[in-house]
Amino acid sequence: MDDIRHVRVETDREPRVQVAALPWRRTSGGDVEVLLITSRETRRWIIPKGWPMKGLVAHQTAAREAFEEAGVRGKAARRKLGAYHYDKRLRSGRIQHIKVGVYSLQVETEREDYPEMAQREKLWTTPQAAGDLVQEPELAELLRRFSPK
Predict the structure, then answer these.
(1) What is the pTM of this model?
(2) How confident is the model at residue 1 (pLDDT cuts 50, 70, 90)?
């Protein structure tokens, strides 16, 4: 008789909430580019995101994450652009369902020196190409249909 072991991954049922910035700019030709960064551990393409911060509303937190993770500052929209979901593996091994609210951030300045510069790569690209690079289907769709006013 084979010794088959079933691994059960524990998940938290309720999704936790994060906020993200979708940094964007216009090229000299008027085209829109969005900024992707790599995640620290898996090195996959994502947008800057993080947990809510005490004393800041969601769009302010998104803007702070954009600076810390990508070195960009700008005008964050107060209204959520959309949302996507993903599963995060916690240090304990459990899987946590995450719902991410996304806020548009029109980039005004980009610094070469920022807190997580040594931990991430950055890529300015078209919204369509960005949608092809990210792994989360809902984020990919949000990127592909992004068109600032």
Answers:
(1) 0.88
(2) very low
